[in-house]
Amino acid sequence: MLRVDTYPTHEYEGIKIRRGKALPFGATIVPGGVNFSIFSKHATSCELVLFKKHEQEPYAIIPFPDEFRIGNVFTMMVFDINHEDIEYGYRMDGPYKPKEGHRFNENKILLDPYAKAIAGREEWGEEPDWDKEVQYRSRIVLDDFDWQGDKSLERDIKDLIIYEAHVRGFTRHSSSNVKYPGSFAAIREKIPYLKELGVNCIELLPVFEFDEFEHSKISEETGERLMNYWGYSAVGFFAPKAGYAATGKYGMQVDEFKNLIKELHENGIEVILDVVFNHTAEGNEKGPYISYRGIDNKTYYLLTPDGSYYNFSGCGNTLNCNNPIVRNMILDCLRYWVSEYHIDGFRFDLASILSRDQKGAPMVNPPLLETLAYDPILGKSKLIAEAWDAGGLYQVGSFPDWGRWAEWNGQYRDDVRRFLKGNGQMAGRIIQRIQGSPDLYNDRGPIASVNFITCHDGFTLMDLVSYNRKHNKANGENNRDGSDENYSWNFGHEGKTDNPDIKRNRIKQIKNAVTILLLSRGVPMLLSGDEFGNTQFGNNNAYCQDNEISWLNWDLLEENKEIFEYFKQMISFRKRHPVLKTEHFRTAYNASGYPEISWHSQQAWNFDFSADTLTLAVMFAGAAEEYNTKDDQFIYAAINMHWELHGFELPELPEDKNWYVFANTGMNAPEDIWEEGQEKKLNKQSEVLVASRSIIVLIAK
């Protein structure tokens, strides 16, 4: 029996069609054909443009009859087409009145905003044919992947140890020894490594389709091509980047990425995506027509009264995120990645833009952020904000949260860097950061704070201790780009050195950094490669460097095995001690008989919170009954960022316990850190001597 709604009612140049379903937007496979649906409030007409794959000219251009428009949605079912062999786009006609916000051009073939796969950049770095009028085409995806029972892991955010990585840079270097360097498939080969390190969440820099040739040019400094390497400039929000897939040239990027996610989940590793909804790749008034500009410019972008683009993103345009249409598009997008890709969470680039109204002003209760916080499909997803934007809106500690949003804690990064460097007047601030930043998140708890010292944007950890200043000339901007406030210190020599004392001090400082990070309450995030001393040679803004500046050099894993082993043991230590991962701020005495967290100076129980000091100690005391551990947990860390040795009086323990040394950054491997059960009993239980610029971590047994 033939269903009525799958029977063609019209024919156009031999192609059978009928009025389609308005929802969902995009191209959806239906019995006998494909349903196409696209929104435009201000377009006067729309045409569907169909191509055979890889052919230059369309084989059909089908106007939407007036009766195929439902409200502001053009929708049409097209019958008897092979969805695996076509690409498509749209042509919209309407007013061209830039001062009123309209930029329609009936000659432009436009990308479907809801395209689930995009053609045009199938292989990374393959020079496009710039003479082609249409650089990107929409493709149709059949969501039939066999997940074999996989689902999002839904691990509690307090238990995460996040590992930030760039898909290409993670394995592109020849030293990575993978079959398909720089791809989703290559990350699968590194899963045993991630498990050995101990991280349980990987946060991927943008994987939505973008154009690595955007603003590409040859560097006058190096002669190398500069690329849009990081990808913070989406062409399409629903499509994974084909150039990141070893199978992208065969159109299999969707399955390859899903295979990676499934295997990461099988190994207990969550996946967070870095998403960029604050702007698009269409740029400013001089930018290209790709999608939104030609579909409904006035709806999708924040525009000034004279029709030009607000630029709160620093990238030419700003998406009109709190317009209901755009808000729903973002919600549809995130729901799609959660439901169809089993993504565990999202980090939102320049998220403060998402709190601006349609005139660009900050809102007290931004509807988009509230919608995402309460959405049922996103109900178990992590939502992490980069709580600032390029327009000067800085919301660290005040980002609208509804009990759901966490934040990249930029103050944690800066304060820990300054304290490690030995800057004065930091003791009070470092105390706040280690206990989860109650000065910022008192009403939300430590898990609102994603703690990091390094990320993709800025120095690597090795560069933080190797360079006093940035070295970005290779970027072709005369070293003007990138932050000048790095709070770094090179220990007396700029860059790589053979001086054994400087090398030893740098390694010690790296250990100090990761020790503080993994002892701090909140959610720790590591930058990939920091665990083996990866360097970007002093470049603190490698957004355009698709070369050995940005690629992880895996040879350093063997050279800096000491750093890797220290990271691995610190990660394992954090996992074993739930008192470090509490969701609440507590200083009161608990069932252990001690305060859950207490601060000490060189004298136990005697800390002057007004002191300008580079020495302090913290003790965590976790009651067994609260944390479901066999015994009460006691952890004591003596932190000495002074340039001289200092002794620390130790707090007394219950009579049945003694202090044991777990870590001592002042010692060389293998006596710098001990595996569980191998910790060394402290000879003198009343005092510990801490070398200059060192940290000693003790546990009670």
From TrEMBL:
SUPFAM superfamilies: (Trans)glycosidases, E set domains, Glycosyl hydrolase domain. Residues 164-574 form the Glycosyl hydrolase family 13 catalytic domain. Keywords: Glycosidase, Hydrolase, Transit peptide. One of its GO terms (molecular function) is amylo-alpha-1,6-glucosidase activity. Residues 493-502 have a biased composition (Basic and acidic residues). Residues 472-502 are annotated as: Disordered. GO terms for biological process: glycogen catabolic process. Belongs to the glycosyl hydrolase 13 family. This is Glycogen operon protein. It comes from Orenia marismortui. The lineage of its organism: Bacteria, Bacillati, Bacillota, Clostridia, Halanaerobiales.
